[in-house]
Every structure is written in C-alpha cells, then in structure tokens.
C-alpha cells in the first residue's frame, strides 16, 4: 500500500511521508501468524519424536487420552493466566489456590453435602481467592507480583491447616463417577478443558469484557482516558483466574480421587511458561488463547515422551527450560522487527 | 578576541516526520553566559541533547577549542568537558547525595568504593554551592526541588566541566534560591567556565546573560546578540512562523449568541494552576496558550476528570460533573485527545476499529458480545469522514502516521457523539499536510456545534484556529480575549512578562 503523497512546503520540509506499513491486520483473534505456525511445528515435531521412540504406544488412543487428562488442569489454569497476563498482570498464586480449593471441597464436612456442594465450594473458593488478589492489586495498589506472592504463601498455608497435611480421600462416589466418566467416548475432563478454552476464547475475542482486557493491558492510561473503569476490570480479571483455579481443582480431585495441600505445586510456573511460549506478551496487551493451548500441549507431549521412554525428569526439566528460552528469544526478534516497521 | 570554546555550525537533526534541527549555529566563548531563546518546539531541547552527546546530529560540525570534536555519547561529552543539567532532574531519588554526584564514575580502589573520599568531595562541593547543610548522606528523594537542583549542579561541577548547559534551572526555584544560583554562575564564569543558559524569563537573561542566540523552527535566526537587545526585537525574532498559510478561512463565529456548553469555574489544583475560569459555547473553538509547564495540559485533564481538582467546578449543559471522574465526564459528552498520543491515547497493538470504539463499547455490544459488524461499519464510515487513509479499520493503529493516529483518537469521540472536544497539542509530531487536514477537521466539528478546547504550544496555531484565547502563565490566567484582538507577539509578550519568580514545582520537560 502506498502512502498518499502529501504537499510539503519547502520551509518545513518535514521529512518523508510515512513508510508504507505492512499489511498488518486484525482478524478477530483468529490470527494464525508465523509464530503460531512455528509453535504448531514444534508440537508436531515432538509428536513425531514420541512416535519414533515408542511407535507401539505413543499415538494410541489410550496415551492421547492420558496426555489430555493430565493436561486438563494446567490447561484450565493457563486460560485464567492468559487473561491476567494480557491485562498486564501476573498471578503467582494459582497453584496454591488449586490446593486450597481441592482441600476445602474434600473436607469431611463438605463431602457430607454431596457432589453439587463440593463443586460449588471449589468454584467459590477459587473465585474468592482470585477476587482478593484483584482487589488488593487494583484498589490496594499493590503490585501484582507481591499481592499474588502473598496469596501464594497464605493459600497453601491455609490448605495445610485445613487438611492437617493429610490427603483427604473422596468418599462421595457421585462426584467420582461423574468426573471420571466419559461422554460420547471422551473423558469428562477433556470435555471440560475444551469447554473452558472455548468459553475463554469467546470472552476474550468476542465480548466487551475481552476488548477491555486487551485495552487495560495494552495501555492502561489510554483505557482510563477512554472512560473504562480500569480498577474494576483488573479485579475481575483476577477473579476469572481464581475461578479457573477452582475448576482445575475439581479436575485434580477427580483424577486423584483426593484433595491434598500439595496439589497444584508449580502450576504457576507451568502456566506462565505455557502462556509465554504461546506468544502472549508478558507486558500485556497482546496474546492469544490458541497459543496458550499449543503451549500447554507442547509441555504435555514432552512429559509423555519422557515417561514413555522411562527417562529421568531432570533432563525433561532442562528441555523445558530450553524451550521457554527459545520461544522468548524468538518473540524478542519478531518484536524488534515490528518496531522497525512502526517507525 | 580569543578563540571560541565551542562552535557548532549547520547542525541538522531529523526524527521520523520532524526536522527538529535544520541548520543551527552556536558559538560559545570561555567565561560567558550564553543564552538560548526560542519558542516551544524551536529546537532548544534537541540542541542541548546534541551538545550532551545524547543525540547524534545528521549533519553539521562541532569544534571544541579549535579542534573538530565528535560527541558520540554522554560519557564522551563529559570527558570533553561538557556537563548538562537537564530540566527534569535526572537524579536517582533512592540513594544519597554523594552517590548521586558520583553516579557512573564512582571513586574506587581495588574494586572497593572510596566512600570517605567521595563524601569529603561532596561536602566540599555543597559548601562551594552555598548549601553546606545538605549532608552527603541525605537521600536525594527527601530534598526539596531546590536542593535537588543543587545536587544536579554539584554533579556538573565534579567533572571540572569547561561548559555547563543549564536548561531552565530557575523553573523550580524560589527567588532567594535564584540569587544563589546566579552567584554560583558568576563564580563559574569568573573562573573561565562557559554556561549555556536556557530560560523563558527575559529579565534573567538581562541579569546574567552575556550574549543571546535565538532559535526558530530548528534554525538559528540570530546569534551572538548582546543580552540587552530590546524585548520587542527578541520577540520578533522568535515569532513569525510561516504556518499561517495553512489555516482555512472561517467566517466570524456567532458563538456568543449560542448556548453555553462547557462552564469551568475557579478550577484549582495546588502547585499546578489556580482559579481558572472560562466558558465555551456550542460551535466555538476556544484556545489555551502558554508555555510548557504553565498548567495547560493539567487544566485540560482536570476538566476531563483525569485529575481531581482541589477547588472549582466543571459544568456541561448545566449539569455539574463529579470531580475527578473520567466516566462522568465521558457520559456528559466530553472527549479528550491527550497530549501524549501514543502513551495516553492509543492501543498501538490493536486495530483502528478497536481504538475507535474504546470509549463506546457498551453501545457496541449486545448482552456483552461485541457487535463486530456494526463496529467495522461505523469505524469505516468515520475514518472516511475524517479522510483517514487508508480507511481500513482492521489495520493496527501503530502502523499509521502521526496525523492519521490523531484522527483515530478524534474518531473515538465522534463515534460517541461528543459535545465537548478537548484537544491537547493535536498537531505535535504531525507533518504540514496532515496539519492542514486536522485544522479543517476542527473547523468542521465546530461548525456542527461541538465545543472545541484547543491547547497548543504554537501560538500561531491557537490564534489561527480559535475564536477566543486564554493565556496561562505559571498556572494563572494572564489574559482572556478574542483571538482577533491578539497577535503572536502580543501573546508572547504576555507569556514572557511573567518573570515574577514563583514556586510552581511541577514543570514538565519541553517537548522535542
């Protein structure tokens, strides 16, 4: 596209006409740019490696189902984390909130009310913790890192206190039958993961709420000067992250048939890693849930390759670190190229 | 006559879209106070950044004590003997006075910092500056503005600089502090140090200046004038920018017969502005002129609710606005195109359409879902109306030129159907062709009945566009008259008259 010629007076001479910018357009959250394609390539390569090393078992229905069920909880947490990071924040407390929710919903008292109350309890505890984070950050003006660090410590502490550091076994069979069951041949946990991702995608890309999330993270001052209630919005975003933790707690409890204060350990790191390699800017304002999903799957497949081949987890962690750094370096390079485009 | 200490000739510096310096000459002799004069945007700040090694010129030569010199970095400039005291103090607030003075060149032996030696040197410097009570261990953030100014000066002195650049050093000082500053300047020049002095206060220039160089539109229009050159001569040199030609013709406004839309009464924010009152009618363009730091932008942002006033009221169509509430101002129909387009106005990573509907999202949603078809349609229509090219609402706003970005900000408020439009420096960083379009747009909006408030550093722009003009000087209304009764020289006169030293603390940096 050629920039229109302007009449310039000789006296001011004001440099050149704006450079013709690339065809950078918005496609309504469906953008499938080079980086996403690259990520998908990485995922496929990992799948190929898995198949090459264990052709008999890797791409079987059973293993794929196992992988996805393992990915479910961290995937749901990552959806909430994507919202938080796009809005310009960070949430270090997600793992602890998962632990607290899982413990609270499996206490003897809660279980005595039946499965519906257990589910409600997990969701409310998660939402509540998230909103506390959000209120402290937006109205208490505590930086997200510190506010959620405090929640990281105290939520797990409370979980330990509630459970007496004992694993609480789920005796309520209605709960386990439903959440460990399958629907149309697909495990319920995988349905839940898909559903949360779908809802998250719609909210982020098709609603006013999602639009404001991008605005707050991209330029909070511009959002404020456009009349958006930035504080309330920030609080709500952390509430969403907390709610996702509550859903993830349901999944963890269903998978392990128990609630424990050690649930959700390091979820915050795994979720941040998935979001970041998925192409969401850590500084906010730009990101995609599709990228996050691929990020989660990359780590899941990696995990499966190592367990299937009986390899040590230490090498797995090294590989994880390398993938994170490679993805972020790649982002830096593309970001620099974009900046050159802009000036 | 001895050889000049510094000679700069034909300095050119271009930024994307703007030629900030377009052939500047400057000659500074040893032991003189050389004053730089010029309106906002004349290129003073860019010139001193070149001198400080912070910007590299695109063309031109710099001679230092008879030999060609390259100021490749701030460190290189310091090593040569050029120290700069920036207007916005570049100190680290959380560390001590001594640590600030030696920041970046700490004295050390075997890797251990020589704290004692640095402290002693700091004590000596503060005594020389007439303020031995400022202890070297004090945390700089706890000092007053004047105290910080002194630390900044000590930092220049510790390098044994041959040339010290002072950018509006008195802006934050009370009058006895100014006397002290001038005494120090006198001592420095007596020792052969040259000072390049920037100030908008002519009487200061008369008091301590030796010679004056006047900049206009990035060029030197007069150099080496004696400091006692008559005021009107200096003002004439500074004014007369040749941009009038692009203002569209506009028939005399009948504004006074129309309805009052925006009424501001006694608006005050301590330390920023006092008792500002004005009324804007439907279809009127109301201009606010004044130097950077006179409180222009602050007034505008307070009217918009982005800052909370200490006193005073804002009324739109007879309804009083809740003080300090942007949401209320937006609801009442006020729109603001802020001064810093990129950092305050736009979401550069998002498409134009999202930027345009940002202030009217509820109107573009059904049950929380964005009506994207209508959003695209309306955005495109508005872009076409504003002649924003290319009128593609899906392009990322960051890929547009400055003028088109400004139009996108204006479009945001048009889509909302605003009654009052506040424009803060709408043409900053916008090339001439796009300026003319923005001017025409402002006229069109006024013709449709929008009340426009325009703040600009460029006096001709205010005079060329506005029906009535309010001149702010150090936070106070210095004049309020119909634009037809004012000339550029008259406005400059009013602006510079205010040499009375006051304690306006919040002085923002002059834009490049």
TrEMBL record, chain A:
<keyword id="KW-1003">Cell membrane</keyword>
<feature type="transmembrane region" description="Helical">
    <location>
        <begin position="289"/>
        <end position="306"/>
    </location>
</feature>
<protein>
    <submittedName>
        <fullName>Sugar ABC transporter permease</fullName>
    </submittedName>
</protein>
<feature type="region of interest" description="Disordered">
    <location>
        <begin position="1"/>
        <end position="24"/>
    </location>
</feature>
<dbReference type="GO" id="GO:0022857">
    <property type="term" value="F:transmembrane transporter activity"/>
</dbReference>
<feature type="transmembrane region" description="Helical">
    <location>
        <begin position="142"/>
        <end position="159"/>
    </location>
</feature>
<dbReference type="GO" id="GO:0005886">
    <property type="term" value="C:plasma membrane"/>
</dbReference>
<feature type="transmembrane region" description="Helical">
    <location>
        <begin position="235"/>
        <end position="253"/>
    </location>
</feature>
<feature type="transmembrane region" description="Helical">
    <location>
        <begin position="179"/>
        <end position="204"/>
    </location>
</feature>
<keyword id="KW-1133">Transmembrane helix</keyword>
<feature type="transmembrane region" description="Helical">
    <location>
        <begin position="34"/>
        <end position="52"/>
    </location>
</feature>
<feature type="transmembrane region" description="Helical">
    <location>
        <begin position="318"/>
        <end position="335"/>
    </location>
</feature>
<keyword id="KW-0812">Transmembrane</keyword>
<dbReference type="Pfam" id="PF02653">
    <property type="entry name" value="BPD_transp_2"/>
</dbReference>
<keyword id="KW-0472">Membrane</keyword>
<feature type="transmembrane region" description="Helical">
    <location>
        <begin position="64"/>
        <end position="85"/>
    </location>
</feature>
<dbReference type="InterPro" id="IPR001851">
    <property type="entry name" value="ABC_transp_permease"/>
</dbReference>
Automatic annotation (TrEMBL), chain B:
<keyword id="KW-0547">Nucleotide-binding</keyword>
<feature type="domain" description="ABC transporter">
    <location>
        <begin position="6"/>
        <end position="242"/>
    </location>
</feature>
<dbReference type="GO" id="GO:0005886">
    <property type="term" value="C:plasma membrane"/>
</dbReference>
<keyword id="KW-1278">Translocase</keyword>
<dbReference type="InterPro" id="IPR003439">
    <property type="entry name" value="ABC_transporter-like_ATP-bd"/>
</dbReference>
<keyword id="KW-0813">Transport</keyword>
<dbReference type="InterPro" id="IPR027417">
    <property type="entry name" value="P-loop_NTPase"/>
</dbReference>
<protein>
    <submittedName>
        <fullName>Sugar ABC transporter ATP-binding protein</fullName>
    </submittedName>
</protein>
<keyword id="KW-0472">Membrane</keyword>
<keyword id="KW-0677">Repeat</keyword>
<feature type="domain" description="ABC transporter">
    <location>
        <begin position="258"/>
        <end position="499"/>
    </location>
</feature>
<dbReference type="GO" id="GO:0005524">
    <property type="term" value="F:ATP binding"/>
</dbReference>
<keyword id="KW-1003">Cell membrane</keyword>
<keyword id="KW-0067">ATP-binding</keyword>
<dbReference type="InterPro" id="IPR050107">
    <property type="entry name" value="ABC_carbohydrate_import_ATPase"/>
</dbReference>
<dbReference type="InterPro" id="IPR003593">
    <property type="entry name" value="AAA+_ATPase"/>
</dbReference>
<dbReference type="InterPro" id="IPR017871">
    <property type="entry name" value="ABC_transporter-like_CS"/>
</dbReference>
<dbReference type="Pfam" id="PF00005">
    <property type="entry name" value="ABC_tran"/>
</dbReference>
<dbReference type="GO" id="GO:0016887">
    <property type="term" value="F:ATP hydrolysis activity"/>
</dbReference>
């Amino acid at each position: 596209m050629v920039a229109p010629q302007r009449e310039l007076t000789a006296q001011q001479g004001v440099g050149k006409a704006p450079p013709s910018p690339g065809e950078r357009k918005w496609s309504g959250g469906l953008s499938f740019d080079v980086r996403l394609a690259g990520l998908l390539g990485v995922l496929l390569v990992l799948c190929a490696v898995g198949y090459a090393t264990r052709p008999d078992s890797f791409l079987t229905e059973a293993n794929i189902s196992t992988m996805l069920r393992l990915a479910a909880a961290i995937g749901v947490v990552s959806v909430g984390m994507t919202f938080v990071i796009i809005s310009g924040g960070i949430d270090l407390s997600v793992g602890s909130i998962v632990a607290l929710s899982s413990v609270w919903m499996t206490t003897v008292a809660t279980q005595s009310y039946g499965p519906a109350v257990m589910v409600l309890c997990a969701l409310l505890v998660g939402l509540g913790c998230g909103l506390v984070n959000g209120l402290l950050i937006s109205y208490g003006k505590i930086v997200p890192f510190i506010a959620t660090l405090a929640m990281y410590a105290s939520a797990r502490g409370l979980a330990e206190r509630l459970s007496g550091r004992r694993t609480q076994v789920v005796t309520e069979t209605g709960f386990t039958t439903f959440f460990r069951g399958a629907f149309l041949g697909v495990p319920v946990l995988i349905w839940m993961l898909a559903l949360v991702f779908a809802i998250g995608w719609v909210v982020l890309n098709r609603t006013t709420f999602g639009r404001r999330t991008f605005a707050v993270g991209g330029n909070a001052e511009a959002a404020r000067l456009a009349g958006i209630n930035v504080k309330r919005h920030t609080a709500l975003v952390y509430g969403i992250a907390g709610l996702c933790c509550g859903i993830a707690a349901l999944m963890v409890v269903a998978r392990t048939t128990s609630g424990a204060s050690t649930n959700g350990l390091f979820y915050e790191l795994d979720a941040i890693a998935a979001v970041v390699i998925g192409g969401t800017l850590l500084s906010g304002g730009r990101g995609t849930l599709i990228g996050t999903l691929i990020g989660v799957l990359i780590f899941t497949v990696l995990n499966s390759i190592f367990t299937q081949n009986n390899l040590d987890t230490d090498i797995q962690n090294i590989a994880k670190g390398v993938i994170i750094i490679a993805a972020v370096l790649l982002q830096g390079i593309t970001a620099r190229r974009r900046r050159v485009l802009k000036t | 006559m001895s050889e000049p200490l510094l000679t700069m000739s034909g300095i050119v510096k271009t930024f994307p879209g703007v030629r900030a310096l377009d052939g500047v000459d400057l000659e500074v002799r040893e032991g003189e106070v050389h004053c730089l004069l010029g309106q906002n945007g004349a290129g003073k700040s860019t010139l001193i950044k070149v001198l400080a090694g912070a910007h590299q010129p695109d063309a031109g030569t710099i001679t230092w004590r008879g030999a060609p010199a390259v100021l490749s970095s701030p460190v290189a400039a310091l090593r040569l003997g050029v120290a700069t005291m920036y207007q916005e103090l570049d100190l680290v607030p959380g560390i001590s006075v001594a640590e600030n003075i030696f920041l970046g060149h700490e004295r050390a032996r075997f890797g251990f910092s020589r704290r004692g030696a640095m402290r002693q040197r700091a004590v000596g410097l503060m005594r020389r500056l007439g303020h031995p009570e400022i202890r070297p261990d004090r945390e700089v953030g706890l000092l007053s503005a004047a105290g910080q100014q002194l630390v900044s000066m000590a930092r220049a002195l510790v390098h044994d600089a041959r040339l010290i650049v002072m950018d509006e050093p008195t802006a934050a000082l009370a009058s006895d502090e100014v006397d002290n500053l001038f005494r120090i300047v006198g001592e420095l020049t007596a020792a052969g140090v040259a000072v390049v002095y920037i100030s908008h206060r002519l009487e200061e220039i008369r008091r301590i200046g030796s010679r004056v160089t006047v900049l206009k539109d990035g060029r030197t229009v007069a150099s080496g004038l004696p400091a006692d050159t008559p005021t009107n001569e200096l003002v004439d040199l500074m004014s007369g920018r040749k941009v009038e030609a692009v203002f569209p013709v506009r028939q005399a406004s009948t504004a006074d017969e129309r309805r009052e839309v925006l009424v501001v009464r006694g608006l005050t924010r301590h330390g920023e502005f006092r008792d500002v009152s004005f009324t804007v009618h439907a279809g009127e363009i109301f201009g606010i002129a004044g130097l950077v730091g006179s409180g222009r932008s602050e007034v505008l942002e307070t009217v918009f609710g982005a800052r909370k006033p200490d006193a005073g009221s804002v009324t739109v169509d007879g309804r009083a606005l809740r003080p300090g509430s942007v949401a209320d101002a937006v609801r009442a129909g006020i729109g603001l195109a802020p001064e810093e387009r990129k950092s305050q106005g736009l979401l550069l990573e998002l498409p134009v359409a999202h930027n345009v509907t940002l202030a009217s999202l509820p109107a573009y949603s059904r049950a929380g879902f964005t009506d994207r078809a209508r959003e695209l349609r309306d955005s495109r229509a508005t872009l076409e109306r504003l002649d924003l090219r290319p009128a593609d609402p899906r392009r990322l706003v960051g890929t547009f030129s400055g003028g088109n970005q400004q139009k996108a900000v204006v479009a945001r408020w048009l889509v909302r159907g605003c009654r009052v439009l506040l424009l803060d420096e709408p043409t900053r960083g916008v090339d001439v062709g796009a300026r003319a379009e923005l001017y025409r747009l402002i006229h069109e909006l006024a013709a449709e009945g929008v009340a426009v408030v325009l703040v600009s550093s460029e006096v001709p722009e205010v005079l060329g566009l506005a029906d009535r003009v309010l001149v702010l000087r150090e936070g106070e209304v210095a004049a309020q008259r119909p634009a037809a009764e004012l000339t550029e020289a008259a406005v400059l006169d009013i602006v510079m008259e205010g040499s009375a030293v006051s304690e306006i603390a919040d002085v923002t940096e002059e834009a490049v």
